[in-house]
Design a protein that fits this description.
heterodimer; A: mainly alpha; extended; disordered C terminus; B: Rossmann fold; 8-stranded mixed β-sheet
């Protein structure tokens, strides 16, 4: 019967370990070459051309798909995203209303705080202005009767 | 157990580590939703005790990455660190755009999203000024925002930028890849409603090809044999790196053309909503954090802000490391974060 050590010694050499050794020895050199290649203007130019080709193919696929979906009376991806855009723009309108409300609230708050700051001085120098209240009541009642 | 058995087991562990990384728990610090618009969400992180500082920190994240990078996981979270140091923390997560967001550009983000989000954050905190802290593209947006809206709707009390590109005249390899006449940005953005998240990621990987691809797995293999290896931390980071967010076409076009190709920001020619963005309008205290070996935002791109602003109090911290490494991870926990909170405390 063979020992575990004998079994492992019979095992074929680990290809991963071999690859690892090669990688570790050469990583710096390979990376330097790759970095130099990437930094070369020619690389940027050729990757740009490659991207252009991919985009042309992508555009053809998208156009064909759109034409097909229109023929079979199905909404295209653009149609669905257009709906989404409408919802987003509606949300923007709600936000604009919210902005205005916040501005009004802020103005009312500052008016109220200014009024409360003035009130002690007003109570010592002047009696409360009841006519103003009745005037306001009159205004509100007249508003109520207006057709 | 033989060494071959150990290797087999480690290989299985490695496969499991990579495949289960997408389920790694991230961004778990408790928070509440304060405001939302379209896909953007403004969160306020929950505190056990009232904040000990008056000025809340408002975090602006990059568009192309998941926002949980600043709240990666317990013990490795910048947000958690800020909370522990007594700050009230808000985070603006741009979310994941869909096809319907193809016309969403940086102008819209700067004029319709950020002003509202800062106002909501300030209101929630009791109508107070904010410290605006931006990371990467989020930093560029934060700088533009601070220049456009220094006092209103909310006073920007301090501006903090993490690895933020500002001057694109020498943008390194990424600048070369996106050069005018070479990079088909118009064709790209007119064909695709969204620029896939993999594309900026591929660009980042091309900056340092081997260590960011094969090297990742080689290092994992080595570390799996180490008893002290923090596998959960590795998985969280791996998940973040591979979970890119698509860029709305209009925003991408504006980013590449107006920032990278035409370098309008530092030239004083960037127009947002009919107004020119003048970095000189920034007068609040500024802390600029840069990484010495940053390939994504190289030093020439991050250096310029200090001379562009009118702040009398403008400080820069340059740390040894890369674009992400100085902001998250063990080095950040012991190096950057305490320095930032110390600065924030001093400027509260």
């Amino acid at each position: 019967m063979s020992s575990p050590d004998n079994q492992s010694s019979r095992r074929p050499p680990d290809p991963f370990e071999l690859w690892r050794q090669i990688y570790e020895t050469n990583e710096r050199a390979w990376n330097t070459i790759l970095e130099r290649t990437v930094s070369n203007p020619a690389f940027a130019e050729s990757s740009g051309k490659l991207l252009e080709t991919f985009l042309s193919a992508q555009k053809t696929v998208r156009d064909n798909m759109r034409t097909y979906l229109e023929q079979v009376n199905l909404p295209t991806r653009e149609d669905v995203s257009r709906l989404g855009e409408l919802i987003v723009s509606l949300e923007e309108k709600v936000d604009q209303l919210d902005d205005r409300l916040s501005a009004i609230e802020a103005a009312l708050r500052s008016q109220a705080s200014a009024a409360s700051a003035d009130r002690p001085a007003a109570t010592t120098s002047q009696p409360p202005e009841r006519p103003t209240t009745s005037h306001a009541r009159k205004q509100s009642s007249s508003r109520g009767t207006t057709p | 157990m033989t060494s071959a058995d150990v290797d087999d087991r480690r290989a299985l562990e490695m496969v499991h580590a990579v495949l289960s990384a997408r389920e790694a728990p991230v961004g778990v610090t408790p928070r509440e939703l304060v405001w939302h618009k379209n896909k953007a969400r403004l969160y306020r992180y929950k505190r056990q005790t009232p904040p000990t500082h008056r000025t809340p920190v408002f975090l602006v994240l990059p568009l192309i990455n998941r926002a949980y990078i600043l709240d990666l996981r317990p013990g490795a979270s910048f947000v958690e660190h800020l909370l522990q140091q007594g700050f009230d923390v808000f985070l603006l997560d741009w979310g994941v755009p869909g096809d319907e967001d193809r016309t969403l550009d940086l102008t819209t983000l700067l004029t319709r999203y950020l002003p509202r989000a800062t106002r909501k954050a300030s209101e929630a905190a009791g109508h107070v000024p904010l410290t605006v802290l931006g990371y990467c593209i989020g930093g560029t947006l934060a700088a533009c925002y601070a220049a456009l809206y220094p006092k209103s709707p909310v006073e920007v009390r301090n501006l903090v930028l993490f690895t933020t590109p500002i001057d694109f005249s020498d943008a390194g390899k990424f600048g070369a890849l996106t050069k005018k006449g070479v990079f088909p940005v118009e064709q790209l953005t007119s064909t695709l409603p969204l620029v896939p998240g993999q594309m900026p990621d591929l660009g980042a990987k091309l900056l340092s090809p081997l260590p960011t691809t094969i090297g990742t797995y080689m290092r994992l293999w080595d570390r799996l044999g180490d008893n002290g290896f923090d596998l959960a931390g590795w998985q969280a980071m791996y998940r973040w790196v591979n979970e890119g967010v698509p860029f709305p076409s209009a925003a991408y076009r504006q980013w590449i053309v107006e920032f990278y190709q035409e370098n309008r920001l530092v030239r004083g020619r960037l127009e947002i909503g009919g107004r020119v963005v003048r970095l000189g309008n920034i007068r609040c205290p500024l802390l600029n954090v840069a990484a010495s070996t940053d390939e994504i935002a190289p030093r020439p791109t991050t250096r310029a802000i200090i001379n562009q602003v009118s702040s009398t109090d403008a400080q820069e911290i340059v740390l040894q490391g890369g674009h992400v490494g100085i902001v998250v991870g063990r080095a950040a926990k012991n190096g950057l974060w305490p320095r930032v909170t110390e600065w924030l405390t001093h400027h509260d």
